[in-house]
Amino acid sequence: MFERLEKKLAALGAAGWELSEETVTGWEFYFIRHALDQNRAVETRNYTVKLYADVEGGFLGSASGQISPTASEEEIDKALADILFQAGLVKNPAYTLTDAPVPQEEGEEVCVEKIAEDFLRAMDSVHETDTEDVNSYEIFVKSVTRRFKNSNGVSYTRRFPSSLMEVVVNARREGHEIELYRLYPSGTCDADRLRSDVEDVMRVGKDRLHAVPTPVLKDIPVLFPNENAIEIYDYFRDHMSAGAKVRRVSTWESGKPIAEDMTGDVITMKAVAKLPNSSHSYDVDEEGSEIRDRYLIKDGVAQNFWGSRQMSQYLGLEGSSLVYNVVVDGGKQSAADLRTGDYLEVIEFSDFQVDSMAGDIAGEIRLAYWHHDGECTPVTGGSVSGSMMDAMRTMRFSSETVQYDTHVIPRETVLYGLRITGVE
User: Fold this and answer.
1) Res. 172 pLDDT band, cuts 50 70 90
2) What is the pTM of this model?
3) Which pLDDT does position 336 carry in this prediction?
């Protein structure tokens, strides 16, 4: 099918084209409590075509679409004609597709059986109690093979693991019961980390049932000890995107500090091609550009913008690419040193967002620990809000780091000057 599509694309007369084939083989397991409800083996294959059209006035249009692996010749021809027509309706300043060759190694074979076994053993080892236990979980383990070629002759094939696990836990107390949901994307399975995290979620459920309303708190730091902090660090990553710069959303300049009067920890963020146990660990992006390890921000100074082929060319960037994995260096203090005085440690939000462009911070508290006067009180309700544009100047983060799939970030992050709305 790939070769059939390639021949049709070459004869189509488009200004350029990109063809991707993604083959997924894997296993899926569905458990209720710890009893297997169903399981199945999966094999799918998808084809994506992106076509480019020269548009009057020196513009370039593009559009993409899916082609079914079972499509007939007539269906393929119609689909390609429709995509090319749609491309002609778009008017972007002209840019070119990548023509730089990339390494050809495909990647090691992925043993889905071993990865699945690691997940199953990890869940079997989770310690449960009479009041906190696992309600259900689903495991998806995949070997992904991605094949790509464009009209400039750039081609590659990459193979990598990609896993996902969904867990629901229950906590009960005096006739009250709650459910907590967690999603764990990864490459393979970190069994010890998974088991520990699921047990932590059960403790969160237990404390949630003992929580009291959040009081009105003023002028105390807010500590983020888990994956919610990814939103904070993605603000920095997204501000270093070529798209944000082209659209004039980001005012950061390469070689200049991202903010003045920084009194907290200064951030160092690196984009990396391959990250162990990431679900997106590969060295070529979806447009055929090689992903190279490079600093986005170093010691608080903007370094390299990143982005699509289109946006990168608009900025005049050479050797740029999309970014999937980032590593943030730790700060000057240990996690223990950050946990001093009074502070609010937010564990669970009903929703937490940091607007990647405006920097607005907003989250509704489901569970937090109010550390005050040497005591720790579980609280619930209220909200946290503020601005990353202000908070990044004084933020602090731990020297220890932790990985959440595609992100390595400080284990604990502290923001100052946020507004904490209590429950009236």
Assistant:
1) very high
2) 0.94
3) 95
Give the pLDDT mean for 181-192.
Answer: 96
DSSP result, 9-76: HHTT--SEEEEEEEEEEEEEEEEETTEEEEEEEEEEEEEEEEEEEEETTTEEEEEEEEE-TT--HHHH
For 74, half-sphere exposure in the C-beta direction (CA atoms, 13 angstrom radius) is 0
What distance in Å separates the CA atoms of residue 405 and residue 230, rounded to the nearest whole number?
A: 10
Structure tokens at 345: 């440690």
User: Mind listing the domains of the chain with CATH numbers?
Assistant: 2-207 (3.30.2290.10), 212-424 (no CATH)
Q: What would the mean pLDDT of 124-144 be, rounded to a whole number?
A: 96
Separation in Å, CA 281 to CA 137, 169, 224, 272, 324 = 25, 30, 26, 9, 8
Crossing angle of helices 73-87 and 2-10, rounded to 10°: 50
198: Cβ contacts below 8 Å, ≥ 6 apart: 123, 126, 134, 167, 169, 182
Spatial CB neighbours of 299, under 8 Å, sequence gap ≥ 6: 266, 268
Q: What is the pLDDT of residue 424?
A: 62
Q: What percent of the chain has pLDDT over 70?
A: 100
**Residues 364-382, mean pLDDT to the nearest whole number:** 95
CB 180 within 8 A of CB 168: yes
Burial of 53 (0-12, 13-18, 19+ CB in 10 A): buried
Whether the Cβ atoms of residue 167 and residue 198 lie closer than 8 Å to each other: yes
**Average pLDDT over every residue of 206-226:** 94
Q: Which amino acid is at 181?
A: Y
The mean pLDDT value for 89-111 works out to 92
In the chain, count of helices (H) and strands (E)?
Answer: 9, 22
350 with 390: CB under 8 angstroms? no
